[in-house]
Write a structure and sequence with these properties.
This protein is 64% helix and 0% strand. It has 50 residues and is mainly α. The longest helix has 20 residues. It is globular and about 35 Å long.
């Protein structure tokens, strides 16, 4: 299964009951930090929370 960014924003918005703009800003910042870390050669680990 895969989801695009728009769907990810929709799901997070629904889960947290937050406005779309706020969720999009948080996801953009998160993805930017991941990108910058990878660009510098750092490893990024995302653990599945249950």
């Amino acid at each position: 299964m895969s989801i695009d960014k728009k769907e990810l924003i929709r799901r997070v918005e629904r889960r947290l009951s937050k406005p779309t703009g706020a969720v999009e800003e948080i996801i953009d910042a998160t993805l930017q930090e991941i990108y910058e870390s990878l660009k510098q050669g750092d490893s990024v680990y995302l653990l599945q929370l249950r």
